[in-house]
Amino acid sequence: MLNQKEAVSILTAFSQNTADSAAVSLKLARATKSERKKHIKNEEATAEKLISAVLEISRHWRGFACRKFLRGLFVSHDDKIKEKQKPPQAIEIQNSSSVLLGVEQSQQSVDSVHPPNTPEVQEPTPEKVKPPKCRVISNKSDAASVIQRSWRRHIDMQVFRYYRDLINFRGHGDPALMLKCINPNESKLLDSAAGVHVRFRLAGEKFPPNIYYKIFTHRPVVDMCANSPKDYTKIEAKVPVGKTLSLNTTNTKEGWYVRHENNGWRLVSDRLIHSSMDPVTWQTSKKTVDFHHTRVQRQADVDHRRRKRKIEWMRKMYKDGMLHARETDQETSDLVDRAATGLVNTVDARGTEAVMEWEVDELLQWTTALNFDDYLEVWKEAATSNVS
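and the corresponding structure tokens:
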């Protein structure tokens, strides 16, 4: 161990040669602790030995000063901690005595105000607003837990910001080049005539999240089997339509063709988890969609699903207490609250079909809630590549 005089002499000798050893100091500052100790154990008096000793002394001093500051911040004296920590028996005795004393005082006050023969008049007691409880750090373990939680919160936020910044773009990048780094086999299919774009999202059951991607197309898609849905594995499928109508065969739609997209959200990197073992990939790839052969009906189905999502979104915001009136007038806010309550009760009782979309739009205009259509447009454009 170094004493105070030796440490001061080393620091003084280093301060006199700072101009000549700037490059060496930067190199040793980036080095590991073991490398600096090797230079310190060297018997020869070199510049590396002097600079390594200075860096180690500074590092130990900073650690000591930081620990001393934290100790003074949370726990000043150990004697105060021992005084605050009372045994449970003393707490129980004190609580029981205070309760008995309070009961006796209340009984005496009641007898003095109301004699036994007179009836008691109960006056409404005003509600007392309890102040928020502030946590008092009284021992070392509580202080350590506060520091650990703060540090873990900081690390989690840094990790989330890192993943968020990776996909923080909007309408940029060639989808074929992006997919070439992720899935080279499918990137060959993304030509300019396909009209596709790639969308990225953060998802997963655990933290840190995983990055998923999905390929979308905005060009017309023709599904030949969806234009004439039937069971193509049976012999009756080859019988002409006229004969099937004359035979009066029952149409049960059992075994008919069902469209499977097989285009769910897939992992960008499947080194740790295979795509077949990932729950998000498995659930989204097995999803079935009602694909009608006419484009008008498909557009009507899309509008119906969008209206249902808007109603469910409004219902969730009401349950969470996020629907508030824009106006400060009490009468107007009461009317808005009644309308929101009636609309949500109708949805709960009769389903989303009993509420029209214009009713939801009119209610949202009187509240401070976000615009669902604008939110949906921004969400669709977030973390999305350019069009091929």
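(Above: one complete record from the training split.) Residues 79-86, 88-104, 106-124 have pLDDT under 50 and may be disordered.
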